[in-house]
Write a structure and sequence with these properties.
Blueprint: H1 3-8, H2 16-21, H3 29-43, E1 45-49, E2 91-95, E3 99-103, E4 111-118, H4 123-133, E5 141-147, H5 156-173, E6 175-179, H6 185-199, E7 208-214, E8 230-234, E9 254-259, H7 270-281, E10 296-301, H8 305-316, E11 321-324, H9 329-337, H10 347-358, H11 367-382, E12 387-390, H12 400-415, H13 420-433, H14 436-443, H15 456-464, H16 468-476, H17 481-484, H18 488-496, H19 502-522, H20 538-549, H21 579-591, H22 596-606, H23 610-619, H24 623-640, H25 644-671, H26 673-681, H27 692-698, H28 702-705, H29 708-719, H30 728-736, H31 749-771, H32 775-782, H33 795-803, H34 806-829, H35 838-859, H36 867-875, H37 878-897, H38 903-920, H39 931-967, H40 974-989, H41 1032-1086, H42 1095-1108, H43 1125-1151, H44 1154-1209, H45 1236-1242, E13 1279-1284, E14 1287-1289, H46 1295-1298, E15 1310-1314, E16 1320-1333, E17 1339-1347, E18 1352-1354, E19 1357-1359, H47 1369-1374, H48 1376-1384, E20 1390-1397, E21 1406-1417, H49 1422-1432, E22 1438-1442, H50 1452-1463
Helix pairs in contact: 4-7, 5-6, 5-12, 8-11, 9-10, 12-13, 13-14, 15-16, 19-20, 22-23, 22-24, 24-25, 24-27, 25-26, 25-43, 26-29, 29-41, 34-35, 34-38, 34-41, 37-38, 39-40, 39-41
């Protein structure tokens, strides 16, 4: 499918070992500090002076440190006469003694990390320190902020925009900010920006601000010194007492303090900072194996000459720079000349700007320095692709963060090849930065032409990198999700790249179990290879998703081959399902069409990613099922997860998708009720061949089930073939007097449908009568696919539908239960004989039928849950628990009753069982809309009362034991002890007060003196006169206190609890009742029509049919139906339309919400305020600029008029007379009247680069205006240079011969022959060997040479010795034989270019001239065949390249040759 698809398949894999490693316990902070300290002491060094020599002061060394700061061996005796102090010899490296954490104190207790490092420290070591020891995530962008080192003023608006933009770009892209780290100048502004971010509640995440400062200029640095490290070091900022030194900025997060062994010298850190930035920019973005490197951008505020050098060097290295206009000094100089042509950026203009912007500092600048800076500023302006000027006056709709990122993209476009590769690099950067706004405005434009396959890698990166807005943008711009997920390996790669989550851990365990089971099943004993692990496949994903959804579903991703035959049964698979049935289910699922929206949605849901899941859900074709399945999956993972916060997030997301399902279904219900009901019970092939209703029930989505549409479906199923409009009393009458159903007394649904259709046809006919059109009737007659007309029900069908209705079954069941309880009561109270009577035997048969029905309910499994799941669901139902308890008690009572010894005990058990049967009878109220919710409230209150009894028992026991101990002395009868300590205190709560606690009510005859009478309690302790001896006042007080707490406090507390429970549950009882109503309806829908005890005949029939005859169950389409394909597609299309309506209405509600209106109003007010401030600041400046331009135009007009007047006065007008100059300098002559654009194009550029190649020499700066020899340049004093044997020799031996050779393009800033071989023109030749390659299309190709030193393609050629022969160097490239043959064809060649070349080796007296010769080969010639064989045997050194496709892979100088050769 192309290169993009191939790249998209190269996904990293996830081995089980990696998942296992992620479970390791992280080390403690103390261990991390110890490990980090050990690493720093081993790898980080500092520099110290090892030789003390007196400096300006007596106790100070020439290194700047005091005498006490030196080691003993560095201090020599006073009479020592040794060598002079030298920085390179007398400064050594030793292990650092300043590192750890730093605390600045003050408000907020700001902390950071720091280290003192040597100037020679490897940048790789520093990068390792930052990322591995200080645990910084590798950056996606490096922002190097430079500018004024001294405090300077920024206008309030510019300062606010800079702070906001810098922090926003750092936060959104994950960038590192690097500054000088001190509390002054631009570093202070960066620190304030970081501080504002820390104080802002609207932004999240840490901003990394790294300060690279000079150790020797830091004030109070002694507090940072500790050989073992400081954790932390308390650093005090003393701004007033710092003197010439500088304090660290307390808002930076990390500090690298560069030490060169000296003190008081600024700028020591510049070289190491530059090397560190270059090292970071060589790292791959996101630590990827392939892709772009970490980009870097330089942001400039204010600054002086040093800042200009920094900008110049950065742009020479390809670093884009963003300069903020209005920040002052050199930044404003560059900003004001950036939009001018180079010819107008003159020395005089720079003088003028420097004088205005630098003030008194301008007096210290020499004229030569101004010339040098003019040249550098011109070079900076010439590299426009790397220069971005941020102007407040112009950038009305652009922030600083956008300007920074746009500068990087602009540089990327300029440095890459034209075409799709450039856009790919920019898109990769935008995805890494997570800046979708830039992608919309800069990348996805009309200029970029994208194919779906070209963006597959970007969509994969956006999904894995959690970039939901990018996913939406890519899908909007033509990415086809079908094509992206066409290959299953792509989806598998997404699961392997999934971030750590509950699902990934569960999936890893499943893969391990699968691997062990497979080896055990096949008896394979293989030796494990090191580093090899079982990989995640879609089969594993399908099994885990099936576990989360439930075993009643089918696997979503069947295995690609027949290996599934040997797959081990998982714990959730029903043992009753045979391997053949499992294979059939997988085959059925394999026939279902893949839904890429479903696949992406499932991938997002299992990792609990709400934003990505929201995007994918909108793409799902079966949206209601998808939302309900997501709710079920998330709730299951929340139950099985161990993290409470993560589980809560999952429950919130599950509730969110339940709301989605409710919203879409409500739209469906409002649009078409019949279709909405089909939607609930249709089998969804995309979600394991289950139904929406089943998913909602399994997910416990009570709100969804409680919707009117779902309840209407349940009511329709409850009524069966009867109409839902029938009153209950009519149904009850027809149950007894069934002939009434033939009289129209009871309405059937079939009759209702026929009547409705007839009314509809009557309406159509009436409309046709009015409109005189028969189009509707004819269209219905001509439509063969329309529904067939329904026939009225026959007599037998009416009778069957009456008694097979779940509603009628339920009413017969109630009658049967009443009769059963009546018979049970009669047997217990009247007819319970030693030998069972006929009525008692009937009771046993009746109970047997109930037992058979319970067994049928357990084994009846139309949904395919499996016995384990079905039994669990059966036990979880309270009414089923009562059924089982009643049956067990009845069986025990019957067993005891049939024995003589336990006859009475058996009757007691049967009586207790009668109570259970009566409680079970409460189940009949669950169908009632009035009493059903009240039963739910009663169940909740029973739970409250159960816990309340624990609290009450404490008071009962406490009072009862104390009372019993006071009144009764040593009673050894256990029954009376319990009666007195527990039973009597409990009765006291209800007003039954004991008589033995009061003297007046005491009766000696009511008790036994010694406790010998088993029917009387023991008398209390008596005195000699036979009166109670206990203290009456104490017992009365205890009773009063007990009644106060138990009767008043606790009972009222119980009432309050019941009231709270009622108020809390009342709002949800209706929803819970509607949810539980389903199980009752389903139970009676599947139940045989005959009530107990006659139901036993139905059970016998089912046993014979299903067990003995092994016939399949008769499937019912009431709860689950399979639609034809055409009807399925129409239903899903209609559902998708309803989903769009729901999303639109949701968006409209969101836009009209109060919060959104407040936010929009706030944004509008902010915009208006910004515009007013901008107009206030820029209004006066605009007037000043317009007046200045007007004044300049007036001056130019006056000079031009004066020139015309002088010309007319002269005798004979001369065309060569010069025009007055626009700008002039005192010691320079006027320029000639020439077109500036022509002069600018004619000047060479590379020949004036300040740094001469392969040497340490610097050219004399030659500004654009001083290039021509005709222009006077009195300050021009270039250096002489002539390379000999690779060395640099500068002398005046050739000065006499230099005057004979002068560069035809003007000054270069260097005299002599430089690195060239001779003075004057150094001629060379390049050979363009072309051919026409025949194929499907004719292609023009040329022969190129691979230059291993530069890593690029170049044209064959070399120095030219003779105009009639090719360069001798070409012989080494193509061989002697071919060289001679090509020499013979020189005369046949076409000279496409000959002349001066702008080469970086050119000097004032030596330059390069080139001749380009084109020799075209006929494809049929023998010579062309020899050339082809030579290219084939060159092992890639020679290559045929297509002209247009490989044009930009050549060096820039070679591209020019093609321009001259093929365009002329």
């Amino acid at each position: 499918m192309g290169e993009a698809v191939v790249k998209s398949k190269q996904f990293p894999t996830l081995a089980i070992g990696a998942v296992r490693a992620s479970k390791n316990i992280s080390p403690s902070p103390s261990f991390q500090r110890s490990s980090s300290a050990s690493w720093i002491k081993e790898n980080i060094l500092k520099r110290e002076c090892c030789y003390f020599e007196k400096g300006v002061r007596e106790d100070e060394c020439k290194c700047g440190h005091s005498k006490t700061d030196h080691v003993d061996e560095a201090i020599k005796p006073d009479n020592f006469t040794g060598e002079s102090w030298d920085k390179h010899r007398h400064v050594r490296e030793v292990p650092t003694d300043a590192f750890g954490g730093i605390s600045f104190g003050g408000l907020g207790q700001k902390t950071g990390k720091y280290a003192r490092v040597s100037t020679d420290t490897s940048p790789e070591v520093l990068y390792q320190l930052l990322t591995e020891q200080w645990n910084l995530s590798p950056p996606n962008l490096l922002i190097s902020v430079t500018g004024g080192a001294k405090n300077f003023y920024l206008r309030a608006r510019l300062e606010s925009m800079f702070h906001r933009g810098l922090i926003k770009v750092a936060q959104t892209t994950g960038a590192w900010i690097i500054t000088g780290g001190t509390h002054a100048g631009v570093m202070k502004h960066v620190g304030r920006a970081v501080r504002d971010h820390a104080l802002s509640s609207s932004m999240q995440g840490q901003i990394v601000a790294i300060g690279v400062a000079t150790w020797g200029i830091i004030h109070n640095r002694g507090a940072l010194v500790n050989p073992e490290g400081c954790f932390p070091a308390n650093y005090e900022m003393d701004i007033e007492g710092q003197g010439r030194l500088s304090c660290l900025d307390n808002n930076h997060t990390h500090f690298l303090m560069v030490d060169d062994g000296t003190q008081g010298n600024y700028g020591v850190e510049i070289e190491l900072r530059s090397r560190l930035e270059k090292c970071i920019t060589r790292k791959r973005l996101g630590n990827r194996v392939s892709g772009v490197t970490i980009p870097v951008v330089c942001v400039v505020l204010d600054g002086g000459p040093g800042t200009l050098n920094t900008i110049y060097n950065a742009m020479l290295n390809g670093t884009p720079c963003v300069i903020l206009e209005g920040s002052g000094r050199i930044a404003d100089v560059i900003a004001q000349v950036a939009g001018l042509p180079l010819s107008r950026v003159t020395i005089a203009l720079i003088h003028q700007l420097m004088k205005r912007l630098f003030g008194q500092e301008y007096e210290n600048f020499s004229h030569l320095k101004i010339i040098e800076w003019t040249k550098k500023i011109q070079d900076i302006i010439r590299m426009s692709q790397l220069l971005t000027i941020f102007r407040i006056s112009e950038d009305n709709h652009r922030e600083v963060d956008v300007a920074i990122l746009q500068a990087l993209l602009k540089a990327s476009r300029a440095s890459e090849r034209l075409g799709i590769e450039s856009w790919k690099r920019q898109l990769e950067l935008a995805i890494a930065w997570n800046r979708v706004d830039l992608a919309e405005t800069e990348i996805f434009t009309e200029e970029s032409q994208w194919k779906s396959s070209d963006l597959h890698w970007a969509l994969f990166s956006a999904l894995v990198g959690d970039r939901p807005r990018f996913v939406s943008l890519l899908l909007e711009n033509g990415v086809s999700l079908n094509d992206f997920l066409q290959d299953e390996e792509t989806l598998c790669g997404l699961y392997r790249e999934m971030p750590g989550c509950v699902f990934l851990r569960k999936l890893a365990k499943r893969v391990q179990r699968s691997c062990r089971s497979r080896r055990k099943g096949f008896h394979i004993h293989m030796q494990a290879r090191p580093g090899q692990g079982e990989m995640i496949s879609m089969t594993h994903v399908a099994d885990e998703v099936r576990h989360l959804l439930g075993s009643f579903t089918h696997a979503l991703y069947p295995p690609p081959d027949m290996s599934c035959q040997f797959e081990m049964l998982t714990e959730e698979t029903s043992p009753s399902m045979s391997m053949g049935s499992q294979m059939q289910l997988r085959n059925d699922n394999a026939d279902a069409q893949r839904d890429p929206g479903r696949d992406l949605f499932l991938w997002a849901v299992v990792q609990n990613n709400k934003e990505l899941a929201e995007i994918a859900w909108e793409l799902c074709t079966d949206s209601v099922s998808a939302a309900l399945a997501a709710s079920k999956i998330l709730k299951t993972m929340a139950e099985e997860g161990s993290d409470a916060d993560e589980a809560e997030d999952m429950r919130e997301l599950a509730s969110h998708y339940e709301d989605h399902a409710m919203g879409v279904f409500s739209e469906c219900q409002n649009s078409d009720e019949e279709r909405a009901r089909k939607l609930l019970v249709r089998v969804s092939p995309s979600w394991g061949r289950t139904t929406c209703l089943r998913l909602a029930l399994e997910a416990d989505d009570k709100s969804f089930v409680a919707q009117s549409g779902v309840q209407a479906l349940l009511t329709q199923i409850w009524c069966g073939g009867l109409s839902v409009e029938n009153p209950v009393w009519r149904v009850l009458i027809c149950m007894v007097f069934f002939p009434l159903i033939y009289t129209g007394f009871l309405v059937f649904r079939r009759d209702e449908v026929i009547h409705r259709k007839a009314e509809k046809m009557e309406e159509i006919k009436s409309v046709e009568t009015v409109t005189r059109s028969t189009l509707r009737t004819k269209s219905r007659k001509l439509d063969p696919s329309g529904p067939k007309p329904l026939k009225p029900l026959s007599c037998w069908c009416r009778l069957v539908q009456l008694y097979s209705s779940p509603q009628v079954k339920f009413y017969w069941s109630i009658v049967s239960h009443f009769a059963f309880l009546f018979l049970y009561a009669v047997v217990l109270m009247i007819d319970f004989q030693a030998t069972p009577s006929a009525g008692e035997l009937l009771l046993y048969v009746w109970l047997l039928s109930l037992v058979c029905e319970e067994v049928r309910q357990v084994f009846y499994d139309p949904d395919g849950f499996g016995f384990h799941k079905k039994a669990k669901m059966y036990i979880n139902d309270l009414w089923n628990i009562l059924d089982v308890l009643s049956i067990i008690l009845f069986a025990l009572g019957l067993t005891f009753r049939l024995t003589t010894e336990l006859f009475y005990a058996g009757k007691i058990l049967l009586c207790i069982d009668f109570v259970v049967f009566c409680l079970r009878f409460m189940a009949i109220f669950t169908i009632s809309r009035t009493l059903g919710p009240k039963i739910i409230i009663v169940r909740k209150m029973m739970t409250d009362m159960f816990f309340f009894m624990f609290l009450l028992s404490i008071w009962v026991v406490a009072y009862g034991v104390a009372k019993q101990g006071i009144l009764i002395h040593n009673d050894n009868r256990l029954d009376w002890i319990v009666r007195g300590a527990i039973y009597e205190p409990y009765l006291t709560i209800f007003g039954n007060f004991p008589t033995n606690m009061d003297y007046a009510a005491f009766d000696l005859d009511s008790c036994s003196m010694n406790g010998t009478d088993p029917l009387k309690p023991k008398c209390p302790v008596l005195s000699e006169n036979l009166t109670p001896a206990f203290p009456e006042w104490l017992t009365i007080i205890m009773l009063c206190v007990y009644l106060l707490f138990a009767n008043i406090l606790l009972l009222n507390l119980l009432i309050a609890i019941f009231n709270f429970t009622f108020q809390t549950v009342q709002d949800n009882t209706d929803r819970i009742w509607k949810f539980q109503r389903y199980e009752l309806i389903k139970e009676y829908h599947s139940r045989p029509a005959a009530p107990p005890p006659f139901i036993i005949f139905s059970h016998f029939y089912l046993f014979v049919r299903n067990v003995l005859l092994s016939r399949g169950r008769i499937a019912s389409e009431k709860f689950k139906c399979v639609l034809p394909q055409k009807e399925e597609e129409e239903l899903l299309s209609w559902e998708a339309l309803m989903k769009d309506r729901y999303l639109l209405s949701t968006q409209q509600e969101k836009n009209q919400s109060m919060e959104r209106r407040i936010l929009d109003t706030s944004q509008k007010v902010t915009t208006i305020t910004d515009r007013l401030e901008r107009e206030e600041e820029t209004g006066s400046d605009a007037v000043v600029q317009r007046l200045a331009r007007l004044e300049e135009q007036v001056c130019q007009s006056a000079k031009a008029l004066q020139w015309i007047v002088d010309s007319l006065k002269s005798q004979g007008f001369a065309a060569k007379e010069a025009q007055p100059p626009t700008w002039s300098v005192a010691d320079e002559s006027p320029e000639t009247l020439t077109d500036p654009s022509e002069k600018e194009d004619r000047n060479h550029v590379k020949a004036r680069e300040l740094h001469y190649p392969n040497s340490k020499l610097a050219r004399f700066p030659v500004p654009e205006e001083k290039v021509p020899w005709e222009i006077s340049f009195s300050s021009y004093k270039p250096t002489y240079y002539a390379s000999e044997d690779g060395g640099d020799h500068v002398d005046g031996s050739e000065s006499e011969a230099l005057d004979n050779y002068r560069n035809p393009r003007g000054r270069t800033g260097l005299r002599g022959r430089g690195a060239l071989s001779r003075l004057g023109p150094n001629r060379s030749a390049e050979l363009v060997l072309t051919r026409i390659q025949e194929g499907q299309r004719s292609v023009l190709e040329y022969m190129a040479v691979w230059d291993e030193r530069q890593g690029t393609l170049t044209l064959p050629g070399g120095a030219l010795q003779s105009a009639d022969h090719l360069p001798v160097a070409l012989e080494r490239t193509i061989g002697r034989t071919m060289y001679e043959k090509l020499n013979a064809k020189v005369s046949e060649g076409i000279k496409v270019f000959e002349g001066y070349v702008d080469d970086c080796r050119n000097t004032d007296n030596a330059w390069v001239e080139i001749t380009v010769l084109n020799i075209h080969l006929e494809s049929t010639s023998r010579f062309a065949a020899n050339i082809d064989s030579m290219v084939a045997s060159s092992n890639g050194a020679l290559q045929w390249q297509e002209v247009l496709q490989s044009f930009f892979s050549l060096l820039p100088s070679k591209r020019m040759l093609f321009i001259f050769g093929f365009l002329n």
